[in-house]
Amino acid sequence: MISGVRPLSKRIVINDRLVSQTMSPRSVSSRKGENGILLVVGASDIYHGAPLLSSMAGLRSGVDLVYTSVPQRNVLALRSYSPNFIVLPFSHDSLDMASVREILHVLPKKPDAAAIGMGLDIAQIKGLIYLINELKGMQTKLLLDASALIPDVLKHISGTNTIITPHLGEFKRVFSTESSIQFLLQKKTSLKQLISVVVEMAEKYGITIILKGEYNVIASGIGGTVSVIKRSTPAMTVGGTGDVLSGLVAGLLTKLDPFLASMMGVYLNGLAALQASKKLGLHLLATDLIDNLPYVMKKFDKIK
């Protein structure tokens, strides 16, 4: 059990200059698909909007193609919302082995990155594990969120630098067997103690963690780095902003390493929310973040 704060990894402070230095340039002669292909897997009878938000954010991140795989019952809602979606339906209402085989069978191209779990109803954990392992075999970089954040996935993503994006409740769930997490459940922790636990879990499992909250803690268990980014506005508590973040980070992940994609995604998501809140106050929606992403990102655009 943690009684204090363990030594931290290298602390990175992000700002516009670092984003500008990190953002990948686009070749003037590039073709469709060369600037990133993203797969988003999510949705259920209740949460049809979660993968929609992630997919729109992925597109706004600058990738060329986003494949959005959802149950058949959710297809019409997504296709009706935007002609920009490439929707890959699976026949069952929730994720199981048959659904995963359908997803993998109809994929037009190998995705560079995949975001899994947003609003997803999982009927068979073995289906989720199978999807993770198959995508790993395709050298697809992974981001897991929401329903995909369960203890069963840890041994399958250990050492892969997979990104997970939990809020505090999901963080406690996915690491529920760890003594450090029992410490979190027993008493109120300071920010320093919270950072320490996130770094410990990232290092133990060789993954990148984005712990979402008033202070977003991003830690890389392979890169040995950590960054803390304060939420830009309390208006971000509205539902769906985490789904936007997952899609944005996963889009950046097609071109960047997991820690940089995570840190930049949190920073840019916050800038978009801040810009939206200047116009809308505390009344913004998750879609307002997506609408503002191009305006905060375009100043970092580079062409070679």
SSE inventory with pairings:
Elements lengths: L9 E2 L4 H7 L14 E6 L6 H12 L4 E7 H10 L4 E5 L6 H10 L6 E6 L6 H13 L3 E4 L9 H4 L5 E2 L3 H7 L4 H8 L4 H15 L2 E4 L3 E6 L4 E6 L10 H13 L4 H23 L5 H12 L7
Parallel strand pairs: 1-10, 2-3, 2-5, 3-4, 5-6, 6-7, 7-8
Antiparallel strand pairs: 8-9, 9-10
Helix pairs in contact: 2-10, 2-12, 4-5, 10-11, 11-12
Number of helices: 12
What profile does the largest beta sheet have?
10 strands, mixed
Helix content: 40-55%
The second-level CATH architecture is 3-Layer(aba) Sandwich
Roughly what is the average pLDDT, rounded to an integer? Answer: 93
What is the structural class? alpha/beta
Strand content: 15-25%
Distance between the termini: 51 Å
Shape: globular
Low-confidence stretches: 1-5
- What is the fold named in CATH at topology level? UDP-N-acetylmuramoyl-L-alanine:D-glutamate ligase
User: How are the strands of the largest sheet arranged?
Assistant: 1-10-9-8-7-6-5-2-3-4
Radius of gyration: 18 Å
The run of helices and strands is EHEHEHEHEHEHEHHHEEEHHH
**How many distinct domains?**
1
The count of β-strands is: 10
Per CATH, the class reads Alpha Beta
CATH superfamily name? Ribokinase
